[in-house]
Amino acid sequence: MKHLDAAAHTRGESAYVDDVRPPTGMLYAQVFPSPVPHGEILALDVEAARNAPGVVAVLTAADIPGENQIGPIIRDEPLLAEDEVHFAGQPVAVVVAERPEQARKARRHIQIKIHEKPAITDPRQAFSAGEIIDQPQTFEIGDVDSVWANCDVIVEGSCDIGGQEHVYLETQRARAEPLEGHHLRIASSTQSPTAVQKTVAAILELPSHAVEVDVKRLGGGFGGKEDQATAWSCLAALAAHHTGQPVELVLDRADDVLMTGKRHPYLSDFKLGLSQDGDILAYEAWHYQNSGAAADLSTPVRDRTLFHSTNAYRVPNARLMAVCCRTNLPPNTAFRGFGGPQGMFVIESALAKAAETMGVPRETLQRKNLLQDGDVFPYGQRAEAARAVATWDAAVSDFDLPAIGDRVAAFNREAGALRRGFSVMPICFGISFTATHLNQASALVHIYTDGSVSVSTGGVEMGQGLSTNMASIAARAFGIRPTRIKVESTNTTRTANMSASAASAQTLLNGNATLLAVGQIVERLKRHVATKLGDANPSNVEIVDEQVLLDGSETGWTWERLVLTAYFDRIGLSAHGFFRTPDVWFDPQRRKGRPFAYHVYGTAITEVTVDCLRGTYEVDAVRIVHDMGRPINETVDLGQVEGGLAQGLGWMTMEDLRYSAEGKILSGALATYKVPDVYFMPDDLEVKFLADADNPLGPFHSKAVGEPPLMYGIGVFFALRQAMRAFHGRDVAFDAPLTPERVLMALHGDRVTELHRQAGLSAADVSAADVPVLVD
Amino acid sequence: MAVTRFLLNDRQISTAQPPGLLVLDYLRHHQRQPGTKEGCKEGDCGACTVLIGELDGEVVCYRPVTSCLMPIGELEGRHLVTIEGLNLPELTPVQQAIVDQGASQCGFCTPGIVVSLTGLLMAADARVDRTTVKQALSGHLCRCTGYRSLKVAGDVAAAAVGKRTGVEALVADGRLPAYFLDAPARLRQIHSDSAAEEGAAAAAVVNVADDGTHPAMIIAGGTDLYVQRGDDVPDAEVEVLNLASEMRQLMRGIERWDGHLRVGALTTFEEFGEHPEVQRWIPEIADYMFLIASWQIRNRATLGGNVINASPIGDMTVLLLALQSQLVLRRGDTDRTVPMGSFYRGYKVLDKAPDEILTNILIPDVDAQTRIGWEKVSKRKCLDIATVNCAGRIRVEDDRVVEAGLAVGGVAPIPLELTATRDHLLGQPIDRSTIEGALAVAQTEIAPISDVRGSADYKRLLTRQLMVALFTGMFPDQLSVVEFIGPVPGASAA
After folding, report:
1. pTM of the complete model
2. Is this complex's ipTM strictly greater than 0.90?
C-alpha cells in the first residue's frame, strides 16, 4: 500500500492549516518577540501598533483571562512575557490585523524597554551558577567505583554535541474560530492535540470540552510540534477570544527559527574502562544538557539520554548522570531521538578513544560488546529478542565490511589530498513513552451502511504514514480493501486524552487500539452472519477479501451485504478500542523498571571521502540492516529509515546551530542553517530489513520506526574522523557537527599562526577579528 | 497604476497589484491557489517553485523559479504555471512516480518538486538522466525522505516519458494539459497589446526616483533583494528590469565584441553557463555552476544584479572580478566604462551614481595561454553561500606570468581583487616558491571577520587552501597539491 495522502500531495491538493479557505472576517496575528536574551521589562508601549493600519488588537500578558502558563511538565513558561524575558524571541505581545502584512508592519511599532541582564548560553556555566531544572538524574548498575581498579585500559574525554533545528517544511501555524457559547475550534499543526486543548482551556479559563482541536496533517513535525506548537494555538485562540473573529497565526521561517526550541545541545564527559581483551567493564558519563530558558520537555529528554547512554552495548557497571541546565536560549524540546542520540554519541566516542588507545579497530570493540539476550540495561530491563548481533553480522556479511576496509586502505595509500574512512554504527532504541502512563491510546471505528469505514485515532499524520498504517491495519483486520477505509483527522471530540504523536509509538498504540475496535465489530458481524447461516459457530466465520467464508468455504455473502443486513438487524457498527501497552513500568525513585515494550536494533555502515586540501567531504555510501519486525508497508517504512538517516547525517555534519555568546541566533535562516540536499545524500544508499524478525506486541508483528534510524547518522562522524586520522594521524575532538570548518581546522589549524605572521597580525588584531557578527 | 498582464495557467490575468508584490503572495493570498507553498521565503527550500514560460521565437520555454523571490511585475507577457496548472484528471507520470516510490511523506515540498521535474520534461530536446534529475531536485529541500525515493521517482518518470519530452509531445500523450498549446499565441497577443500602449516609454532604460524620500528599488533578479528587504518591496516604487519587452534588449545577450565578450547585465546565471561562447571562454563553467545557487535561482539571478548587489561573497562577482571585467554604466544615453577592480569602494559602496544603470559586462578576450579557475567552499556543497570563494585568470608566456587577475570573496567588506598578490606573480615562473610567496602576500590583503559562516582564522586558512586549489588546478603540470598540504615546519601538532 502506498502513502494514503501521496496522490493529493503531488497535486497540491492536500490542505494544511492555512490552505483551507478562510472563513469570513478572518484576522491575522503576528508575534512580537523579545529582542534580547535576558532582562527585566521596564516598559512596553503598544499604542502605535494599535493605531497602525488594519490593526484590530494588540494583546499582552494582561489580556490573558486564565493562567499565563504553558509549561507542559514543569510550570515555568509564560505564554506571553510579563516582567522578565529569558530568551531572544520570547513572545511578548501579539498583533492582530485584517491582513497578515499589516500585522507584520504594525509589530515594528511596538516599543519595549528592557533592563538587560547577562545571558548564559553554556550549560556548564549554567550548572556552576546553580541554574538547573529539576534535580540531576543518575542511573546506576553494578559497582563502577570498585571496578576501575580491575580495568586494563581506562580512557576519558569530553564531547561537545550541537543542537539541531527541526526545519519542518511547514512552519508553526494555527487557526482559531470562535463558536457559540465562547467555545473555540482550533485547527493546529501540532503533534499533540490534547496538549493544545488543555493549554488553550487553561489560558482562557474554559473547560476542556469547550475547546475542539482538529489536526488534519502536518507538513513535518519531527518533535518540533510535540510541545512547541501549543503557544501559537494559544495565541490564535486568545486573539479569537478577544476579537470574536477567526484568527490565523503563521510563523514565517525567520520567526519560527527565532522563537522555537530545538534539539538540545549537550556537553558531556566520559570515562570508559575495559579489560585487555576489549570487554567493557565500567562506564561513567556526565551529560550537561543545554535546556534553554524553560523546562518544556527537557526532563524526559534528559531521561532518554540516560536510557540510551549505553546504546547497543553490554555495560555491567555504569554510572550515568544527566542534568538539565537552564540557559537563555529558546526552550529546547523534542527532536526525533529525544535525547537518545546524544547519549549514544558519547559512548561511541568513548569506544573510538579506547580503540585508538588500544591500537585495535573500533569495530572490534563494538562487536565484542554488543548486547545479547539476558543482558541487563542500566535501568534494570533485560534484553529480550536482542538483535544487535544479528543486524551487525548481517550488515558485515551482506555489505562485505572486510572488502570495504581493504578498499579504503588501498585508496588511502595513493590518494593525494583525498582520504577515505568508514564506520559501523549499531543502534538500540527503546520503544514506549518512558512516562509509563502515556502508553495508552484509543480508536473510534464506524462502518457506514454502504460498507465504507471511518477510523479515528489519537495519532497525528505528520508525513510518517500513520494514516496509511491505520488504514492497512483496519483493512487487514476487517478483511476488506484499504480503499474502503477513511482515516479521519485527529480531533479531540472524537478522541479524548491523547498522548502526543511521539516516541515512535503511534502505530504500536493507535494500531493496537484500532485492532481492538475493529475486533469488537468483527465479532458482532460474525455472530450476526452465523445466525443467518443457520446457527453456525461464529468462530468458524471469516471475512477474507470482502467475502464471508464459513469453515473456509464461500457463503455468497459480500462485505456490503454483511454490513447492510447487520444494520437492519440493529447490530452496532461502531466501536471504541482502548489499548494500554502491557508490562511496561518504571520506578522513578529507584530508576529501575521495564520502561520499554521492546527495542529496535540495526546496524549502518558508512563510507566517506575527505578532501584534505579544502576540508570538505562526501558521504559515499550508507548501507543499513534494520530490524523492522515485519513491515506493515515496506515503502512507508523504508521512507522512515532513509529520512531518519538523512536527519542524523545532517545533525552530525552541516547542521550548525549557532548562537552568539550573548544568546542571539546566528543561524537564523535557511541561508545560514543548512540541511541535507539531494547532492549531499549518497546515491549509494541501501536499506535491508532484517529477515525473520517477529515482534508479537506490534500490530501484525511490526516494529516502531520513527526515531531509531536517525541514530545511524552518528556513524558519519566516526567515518570522517577515521579519514582525517588517515591523513595526519592525530587526534580529532569529539565535537559535532563536524562541519567543513572543523575538519579543515583539525587538519591544518597548526598553520594559522604562520598565516597570522604572514599577515603581520598582532595578538590584539587576532582576537578583535574573532568576535562573531551577524551577517545578512 | 501600471497593469501587469500575463497568463496564469489557462487564464489571462490583468492585475493592478503593485509590481513588487511577490508572486508567491499573489498566488496564495490573491488568487487562492494554495498548492504553491511557502517554506522559507528566501529561495532555499523550493516549496514555492512555479514555472515561468517565456516566448522564444515560435515556442514558449518554461523554467522553474522560486515564486518567493519574484515580483509580479516581472510576469508581464509571461506564462506563470503553478501545480494547479499541471494537474490532469489522472496523475501525470511525475506524480504517479512520486506516489509509487513513496517519495512524498508530509507533502509540503511535493508540489514544488512536481513542478521542477515536470519542467525538466518540458524542454523539447530535454536531456533527462540521473544528472539532470538531480539538478531538477537541487533547489528543493525535503526533510522527510532522504531523497533516494525522489531520485528514483525522477528516473521512473523520465523512463515513462522516454524521448517524448517537450510541451507538444507531452500534451499529445495526455501528460500535460492541452491549454499549453495556445500559450505562444496568447503571449504574443499580450506582447503586441503592451507594445501598442507603451510607445515612448520604451526609449528610456529606466526611471529612477531621486527625491531621496521614497527611493525606487531597481530589481534585476531580486533574488537577494527580497531576502534582505522582502517586507518593504511591495510598497516601494519599483523598477523591474527583467522584463520580456524589447526595451531591455540592450541589457541582454552574449556576443564577441571588440576584443571582449559582451554579456548583457540581465543575463541570468543559467543563460551564462549554458552559452557556447562562455563555455569556450571558461571551459569549466558548468562545474562552477553546479556549486552556485540552484536551478530555480540561476534561472532568475542576473550577472548584473550579482555585481550591483555587491555582496562580498557573490560567486559570479568574484569570477568576473578575476576575469578583469569592465562594467558599462549608462545614464540617459551616455555610457561610461569602469574596471570592475575599482568599482567597489566599501561595503556596498559603488562607483556608480544612483541614476546610472549597469547595462553590460565586458570580459577581455582569453587565449590559449590563459588559464582560468574558480573555487568555493560553503557549509553545504550546493545551494549555499560561500564561506570563501576565489577565482583567477593567469596568462603565462615563455614560462613567466605576463597577466594575472585574482579575486577572493568572503574575507573583506567588498569582493576583493588581490592586486599585491597579482603583482607578486607577474614576471615569475609558476613553481612552488612563487606560489608560496603569493599565498603569503594574499594573507596581507585579506581581512576576514568571524561570523556564522566561519571564524576569521578559518577564513584565512581557507583562503590559502582555496588559492592552492586554484593554482594547482590551473597549472597541474607545474604544481602538485601534496607539496602544499604537508606539515607546517616548526608548528606544533595541535
Report:
1. 0.97
2. yes
